[in-house]
Design a protein that fits this description.
Shape: globular
Structural class: alpha/beta
CATH topology of the largest domain: Aspartate Aminotransferase, domain 2
CATH architecture of the largest domain: 3-Layer(aba) Sandwich
Oligomer: single chain
Distance between the termini: 25 Å
Number of helices: 14
Number of domains: 2
Length: about 400
């Protein structure tokens, strides 16, 4: 087994967080979803700049909720959705599960997000109601151009910022551009609640449906007037009101224990962002001229969970991966590569092969980036990569 010197991901929950959690637990708090969950949602929304946020058990569940809420909102003109070739399986899986008609889009050569020329071609051809985008690896996409397409073609935008917490473009944070945005607080991401996710939205109807879908389809988490309006609409008697299910919901709640950790993480998030940005910039300095890497736009703040790069071919990647492993440096493929080359997709729709997405799939690799890395660590990791690339 490899003797690991540099892990690809490190936990952002530190000893101070653990000690504070222990003291809180000694007070006998309510551990399941309660007051702290609401407090964390409020604090998160203030940090992000959106009025409504809903805490759930994972970023994958956040994507699940976004798709399902949109599907039952009564606002879709059709069930067609443009999905990214570069992302994660749960960027697309709910679309399949809920009967959408997904159409896959090529990756942008600069940011690795949606290729906007291909996207416009698909918009003209399919007239989809929805576009699902990923802010790939904390490098903000070309949002001015994407929002112009949204204005022109009138689609709902679902924004996956699960691996982009803290990234921003022109002062606006990733995850705050769309009709709904998802975030992941999984171990090794920019911040962690052990497991956890969030959906944020500027839209109150979506927020109310998110609250109901998160917890069984009942109305107990809604504002009092909204809860009472449903009670009145359906003529529910007082004894039954807490346990009436208005929609076929899920149970993807998180806990106040997770919210306690989340509140502490938000308090140090600006520091986490600055450290990841500094590491990313140093990797770019060492490797940017030798490898294809994501290019951030002017005005962008990059906050990556790992530094991604593309080797010139599969053989070079093989050498680099072997050298990294021999030096105790964890690595992996770039995200999931091209999702159109995975069985869950091609067994249903056939293989979706695109020049840029395929290159990411066959040549991409990750390098560690976390706040604990020092400049000399980034120097050393970069040196291993450069030496391996020489052959």
């Amino acid at each position: 087994m490899m003797n690991v010197k540099y892990h690809l991901a490190e936990d952002t929950i530190d000893n101070q967080d653990i000690n504070s959690l222990i003291e809180w637990l000694k007070g006998g708090p309510r551990l399941t979803k309660s007051r702290l969950t609401v407090e964390f949602e409020k604090k998160w929304g203030e940090w992000l700049g959106l009025p409504y946020s809903v805490f759930c058990n994972s970023g994958s569940s956040a994507n699940l909720l976004m798709y399902y809420v949109l599907s039952i909102s009564g606002r879709l003109k059709n069930k067609k959705v443009i999905v990214p070739s570069v992302g994660w399986v749960t960027s697309i899986a709910p679309a399949i599960q809920f009967g959408f008609e997904p159409v896959m889009c090529e990756a942008d050569k600069d940011t690795f997000g949606l290729d906007l020329d291909h996207l416009e071609t698909l918009l003209k051809k399919h007239n989809p109601s929805t576009v699902f985008m990923v802010q790939v690896l904390g490098v903000p996409h070309k949002m001015k151009e994407l929002m112009a397409l949204r204005q022109k073609y009138g689609f709902f935008l679902l924004e996956d910022a699960c691996a982009a917490i803290g990234a921003s473009i022109d002062g606006k944070k990733a995850g705050s551009f769309g009709d709904m945005g998802s975030f992941s607080f999984y171990f090794g991401h920019q911040m962690s609640t052990i497991e956890g996710g969030m959906v944020s939205t500027p839209d109150k109807q979506f927020r109310d449906l998110l609250l109901m879908m998160r917890s069984h389809g009942w109305s107990k988490d809604l504002d009092r007037e909204d809860h009472e309006a449903l009670v009145k609409k359906y003529g529910i008697d007082d004894f039954h009101t807490p346990f009436v299910f208005y929609e076929p919901g899920f149970n993807v709640r998180n806990t106040d224990l997770g919210a306690f950790l989340g509140l502490r993480q938000v308090a140090k998030l600006d520091w986490i962002i600055s450290r990841r940005q500094e590491n990313h910039a140093l990797y770019k300095k060492h490797l940017g001229d030798k490898f294809t890497i994501q290019k951030a736009l002017p005005g962008a703040v990059v906050c990556s969970i790992s530094f991604g790069a593309l080797a010139k071919d599969t053989e070079e990647r093989r050498r680099i991966v072997k050298a990294l492993e021999n030096n105790g440096i964890e690595t992996r493929i770039f995200s999931a590569g091209n999702l159109g080359l995975h069985p869950f997709w091609y067994n249903r729709y056939g293989k979706a092969s695109f020049p840029m997405a395929d290159r990411i799939h066959h040549c991409g690799f990750f390098l560690p980036n976390n706040p604990s890395l020092r400049p000399q660590d980034v120097d050393a990791i970069s040196g291993v990569v450069l030496d391996a690339a020489k052959g």
